[in-house]
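Apologies for my clumsy wording, but can you show me some protein sequence, whichever is easiest, together with the matching structure tokens, please?
=====
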Amino acid sequence: QVQLVQSGGGLVQAGGSLRLSCVASGGAFSDYVIGWFRLAPGKEREYVALISWNGAGDNYAGSVDGRFTVSRVNEDNTAFLQMNNLRPEDTALYYCAAGLRFVTNPAEFDYWGQGSQVTVYS
């Protein structure tokens, strides 16, 4: 059973940056793809980014491509989501998730973090 604990997030002015962390325990971290998703009030859960098992591959939603960067340090069982040039429309509860496949469908992810609130004001 993999457990994911998130940290980071907060309140930031538009154009600012934040970094989210996701620390895993209870499983072989390098066996899992890490996905990032977000949920904004009144909206469906939205895919944000993926990073492959060894970090060599990544993928981004069009809305964040060029502004967000995913990374991971398998030795530390930790993944990161660096968010730059934040916009008010990025305001959401952000989740990291672990799954076995490099896909963007949240249903494919078995383990989820507790969520981190990101609020961007203009």
